[in-house]
Amino acid sequence: MNNKTIRSKVTFLKKTTLAAGAILISGVISSNIHAANLKWAHVYEVGTPYNEAILWAAEEIKKQTDGRVTINAYPSSSLGKEVELNEALDFGTVDIIYSAESLPAQSYPPLKISAFPFVIRDYDHWKSYRDSDLFKEIANGYSQTTGNEATTLTYYGVRHVTSNIPINSPKDMEELKIRVPNSPLYLMFPKAVKANPTPLAFAEVYLALQQGLVDAQENPLPTIKFKKFYEVQKYITLTGHMTNSLVTIISNYTKNKMSEEDYSKLVAITKQAAIKASDEINTSELNLIQWFKDEGVIVNTVDREPFQNALKPYLIPEKNGFTQEQLDRLKAL
């Protein structure tokens, strides 16, 4: 065998080896792209409809992707408080979160429009907004701004005040030290009724109420039950001053972990999960007034008009990050 033949064979072997290696590496990369183990984190308890919806979504995505994509739920602030979870999205250390509108709205203010006081009329109106072109436009604006994708809304409920004193009018709330989330949107109501708003992390509220560090708090009825606030508060006053949603947000990094087809399935499943949790929360909300009464809590129905009138000077869309046109479209749904 001459030198030319030997060199030819060596070259052929090198090319064959490189090609095989490239195919192997390509296969590994392809496998890594198409297989994803996702973290879905939030601050709510294990037994809530929010977490149950994640467990359903985990089964569904596993089934629809033949096991390529899996979801693990991280409830009860196990991966951080809500502010930290929003930050984690930007680093890709979590893949999906539930978040109150106010936090992602810091990046894109129109996202909080449905939480504007006394804007959402009822659950049907809220559903119309969730499914509307208006929400799609706002969600798209958020995604373009941050790179993360807001896929849908989950109904969180209508906010009411709990306290250890009776509240019949805005005057009864003057100087009342009331816990609210640390966001201008939530400060609006207590400031309007001349209460003393006290921002606290969600996980700290029960102990603060128990120890008298704050006198009151405000949340939807299902949350009051989930967090057991009724154990340390005597009254629930049905102010109904805000309707809240949780935004389901997928990290920008997550899209690169799976195929386009599997990602589309994930987005669709988050929307289905939101519908399931929302309907359950709404049903719970309707039934809880009697449940609280049976637990010995005094449930107080009030005339909401004086509370609405107190808020009127604050209800200026442009000062809250969205337009009058957007607000008019929401009201018209």
From TrEMBL:
One annotated Gene Ontology cellular component of this protein: outer membrane-bounded periplasmic space
PANTHER family per UniProt: PTHR33376, SIALIC ACID-BINDING PERIPLASMIC PROTEIN SIAP (PTHR33376:SF4)
Keywords assigned by UniProt, alphabetized: Signal, Transport
Pfam family, one: DctP
Gene3D superfamilies attached to this UniProt entry: Bacterial extracellular solute-binding protein, family 7 (3.40.190.170)
Subcellular location: Cell envelope
Coiled coil: none
Signal sequence segment: 1-35
Native source organism of the sequence: Marinomonas ushuaiensis DSM 15871
Protein name per the record: ABC transporter substrate-binding protein
Family note: Belongs to the bacterial solute-binding protein 7 family.
Entry keyword annotation includes Signal: yes
UniProt-listed GO biological process terms: transmembrane transport
Source organism, top-level taxon: Bacteria
